[in-house]
Design brief:
The chain is an alpha+beta fold. It has two helices and five strands, in the order ααβββββ. Helix 1 runs antiparallel to helix 2.
């Protein structure tokens, strides 16, 4: 658990290039609250628990989150699911 917190803190402290999306304060806020802010292709951005590393959306306000790298809701659920990348 401590190693996970250290990785998240290190990621939140990475310098961002000028003009890129989120500020260091926003990233640190996400870290403190335990969330990932992701690029949601339908709603702009959305936030999900950082305990899950993969975040999917169907575009209708439904989300699936998973820590398993091979999880794909398109294989077992109806609809078209899109993997959302973490916002930089």
């Amino acid at each position: 658990m401590i190693a996970s917190i250290d990785r998240q803190l290190t990621g939140a402290r990475q310098p961002s290039s000028k003009g890129s999306g989120r500020s260091e304060n926003d990233k640190f806020d996400d870290y403190i609250r335990g969330v990932d802010t992701v690029d949601d292709p339908y709603w702009g951005t959305s936030q999900h628990s950082s305990t899950e590393k993969h975040h999917w959306t169907d575009g209708y306000g439904s989300y699936r989150n998973s820590s398993a790298g091979d999880y794909d809701p398109n294989k077992s659920e109806r609809g078209q699911w899109t993997l959302m990348p973490t916002t930089k």
